[in-house]
Amino acid sequence: MSSAKNQAERIKEISGVNPLKCMKCGKCSATCPAFNEMDIKPHQFVSYVLNGDIDALANSKSLWKCLSCFACVERCPRDVQPGRLIDAARQLVIRQKGQTGLAPEEIPELLDEDLPQQLLMSAFRRYRR
Amino acid sequence: MQRIGVFVCHCGSNIAATVDVKKVVEMVAMEPGVVHAEDYQYMCSEAGQAKIAEAVKEKNLTGIVVCSCSPRMHENTFRTAAKRAGINPYMVEIANIREHCSWIHKNVEEATEKAVILARAAIAKVNLNAPLFPGESRVTKRALVIGGGIAGIQTALDIADAGYEVDIVEKTPSIGGRMSQLDKTFPTLDCSACILTPKMVEAAAHEKITIYTYSEVEKVSGFVGDFTVDIRKKARSVDANKCTGCGVCQEKCPSKKAPSEFNRGLNTRSAIYTPFAQAIPNVPVIDRDACIKFKTGKCGVCEKVCQAGAIDYTQQDEIVTQKYGAIVVATGFDTIKLDNYDEYAYNQSKDVITSLELERIMNAAGPTKGHLERLSDGKHPHEIVFVQCVGSRCSDNRGKSYCSKICCMYTAKHAMLIRDKYPDVNVTVFYIDVRTPGKNFDEFYRRAVEEYGVNYVKGQVGKVIPQPNGKLLVQGSDLLDNKQIFKEADMVVLATAIEPEASVRQIATMLTASIDTNNFLTEAHPKLRPVESPTAGVFLSGVCQGPKDIPETVAQAGAAAVKAIGLLAKDKLTTNPCTAKADELMCNGCSTCANVCPYGAISYEEKEVNDHGIRETRRIAVVNNALCQGCGACTVTCPSGAMDLQGFSNRQIIAEVDAICR
Questions:
Q1: pLDDT at residue A103 above 70?
Q2: What single-letter DSSP state applies at residue B392?
Q3: To probe the interface with A, which of B479, B487, B494, B496 has the most A CB atoms within 10 Å?
Q4: Rounded to two decimals, what is the model's pTM?
């Protein structure tokens, strides 16, 4: 993965989200059940992608604390869908790490007893229908 | 053959930056009929128009083609210039090389080619143009105002004061509209009723104003200066001439369970009712769906108690047909339904209310007699949360894409009034942006913060969760502190988006007035003709055109009145000569054109014709030039090709197509 700008473009591409639509109302952060666990808050995800600050995003705690409950996606009045951005950033990191994604045998080891499995949940939501 | 002059406009750089205007001049000079071609920086300017006049004189022109902006912009300018120069205005054609060409293309070569083609088409048309002469139509010196809110009342008063007759049609039993439901008005905090009711009385007492309440516009025909309108006066079941407005019938009526429309359904009213105490006219109506007499045949209490004998169960709807020269639409607004916003728990808790409902609660004549209390248990609240932009500025299909404009100010008003009257109540306002442009508006909002201690939080509310203890847990963002806030509130007030009154759609259809995707009526020009509809003779007043507050509404109402007066002051209007005409020898009297004509302009006459020496009587289509709007529907429908539109004849259009395809 090259420049931060490219990475931001990738995130937009994967998520299908246009962060420019955001009017900074903060309804996503208002609605987020994992808000207190996050270092970068849901509404900030939008500006981080806009500003191309992808490294900070990739190394944030929030990336793995997001429950992928998609409450922010449901309630966003501007259809910006921050949850999809987070989801895309997560995929970007995963793809970068393994280049081809996770090997099935790695999954049990990575399972976290305390948190819903974001990637699985995200995948289900993303590819439902 | 015509002697045509072609004038190519640069429009500054608007056209000249994309179209090679010199090349256009050079190319069109070779077209048939063209005897003169030149370009100029601003053809619409006085100097540009002088160039046209000069060429007409020198080259003896009979036709003019101006390659410039859209005819919607300057066709009239150039027609007038032609008339001054001694040419019939209908010998002028515009080739739109700005909107249709330079503004939408980037490649100079291609744009120039297209400009030449558009000019060629216009030249081909002018070669077949014939002088046309506009007719005249009369003006009925009477205006109709649809809607009896502050917008309609103000427009009607202004027109009536100028000496013209005005009718107000209002669908509810009283005039007054939304403003009559408000408690106080910003930014001066004077009582809404105190400034509105005198205007209502003035309108009712004005000798030039006739008010039709509990009435709806049912049918509109005709055109500018000469509209014919059917007004349905719904049966009141009360004789307005006999009723003294004593109110005993409402008091004694045993059916008291109908939700009060005026109080937004927060309490109930009797089946025979006036919406509020200061209603005009002060004559009740019987809501036949709620009335026991109408439902079961038994009761008749109101008839028994009415000293004046005004109750009339047999009354029928009545249709009043009236002629008008101008029509003003002032249909107003309503708040949106909140069914799509479950997160705010509006449908789950009685203590989550809209701002308009709060107006009624704060009002001394409202359901709580002006006491601020929770609707669930009647208790005094200590913590109130206001949520801004509920359903406004949404691009997610749940709400409205626009800003409702009035919410920031009325929320500041509510917050201040509550803090003033009940200093023990904490008020928190969740906002996205505070928008307070307007005279003394921002000062007003700052007073709420600085003098009244209203707590403004930058951030939206995510959800409202009704608690088992009856409180409402409000979960919101504080974006400036980067925190999530949980607040236990006693009441939540939603600044609900406003939308045009639903009935405006039907009215717009009847008036053939255009409407946008949000059901706001479209103005003729967003900047330069903001109170006129593109439909001639139809004017716009108040929120039906776009969100606005009371001062703006009153200003616009006056502007609409002036436009209507300007029309009514004329004795005659010139009519568009581009109307349809039937060729008597070709018409076979089939009626197809009459069936498609949207304006009822075509009738049939038995006429004697001379067809190649044979005299016979035939049934022939005749167009009423006053009614015909030149839409051309008949010309494309006519199976024998007898119908033609003057100024846009079939031959002219084919010539244009040929010129383009050449």
A1: no
A2: S
A3: B479
A4: 0.85
Q: What whole-number distance in Å separates Cα of residue A72 and Cα of residue B337?
A: 22
For residue B240, being part of any structural domain is answered with: no
CATH of the domain at B609: 3.30.70.3270
- Minimal Cα–Cα distance from B527 to chain A, Å? 26
Report how many domains make up chain B: 5
d(CA B644, CA B237): 52
Could you please state the CATH topology (level 3) that the domain comprising A4-127 is classified under.
Fumarate Reductase Iron-sulfur Protein; Chain B, domain 2 (1.10.1060)
Q: Which of B338, B396, B407, B433 should be substituted to probe chain A, the one whose Cβ sees the most A Cβ atoms within 10 Å?
A: B396
Q: Is A85 on the interface with B (CB under 8 A)?
A: no
Question: From CA B192, how far away is CA B202, in angstroms rounded?
Answer: 16
CB pair distance less than 8 Å for B395 and A75: no
Do B459 and B549 lie in one domain? The reply is no
CA distance B176 to B536: 28
Report phi then psi at B120, rounded to 5.
Answer: -60, -45
**Residues of B with Cβ-Cβ distance to A32 under 8 angstroms:** 462, 484
Beta bridge partners of B93: B65
Confidence class for position A129, pLDDT limits 50, 70, 90: very low
Within 8 A of B393 by CB-CB distance, chain A residues are 23, 77-78
Measured between beta carbons, the chain B residues lying within 8 angstroms of A75 are 343, 462-463
CA B138 to chain centre: 25
CA B142 to chain centre: 20
Instruction: Write out pLDDT tens, residues B318-351.
Output: 999 999 999 999 999 999 999 999 999 999 999 9
Distance CA(B495)–CA(B120), nearest Å, equals: 57
Chain A neighbors of B476, CB-CB under 8 A: 26, 30
Minimal C-alpha gap between B394 and chain A (Å)? 5
Region of poorest pLDDT, from B2-16, B203-217, B243-257, B615-629: B615-629
Structure tokens at B640: 């024998």
Amino acid at B466: P
**Other residues' Cβ atoms within 10 Å of the Cβ of residue A104:** 7
A125 touching chain B per CB within 8 A: no
Where in the sequence is the domain holding B62, given as residue range(s)?
4-126
Residues counted in chain A = 129
Q: In this prediction, does ipTM exceed 0.90?
A: no
A–B interface: beta-carbon pairs under 8 A: 68
Q: Taking CA A42 as the corner, what is the angle to CA A40 and CA A43, rounded to the nearest 5 degrees?
A: 100
Mark which residues 45-74 of A lie under 8 Å from B by CB.
71
Gap between the Cα atoms of B296 and A23, Å rounded? 56
Q: Could you tell me if B532 and B522 are in contact, meaning their C-beta atoms sit under 8 angstroms apart?
A: no
Of B343, B432, B475, the CB nearest to A25: B432
What's the confidence (pLDDT) of residue B396?
A: 84
C-alpha–C-alpha distance, residues A69 and B39, integer Å? 65
Residues B43, B185, single domain; the answer is no
Give the mean pLDDT of chain B: 95
Alpha carbon B380 to its chain centroid, in Å, reads 42
pLDDT of A125: 62
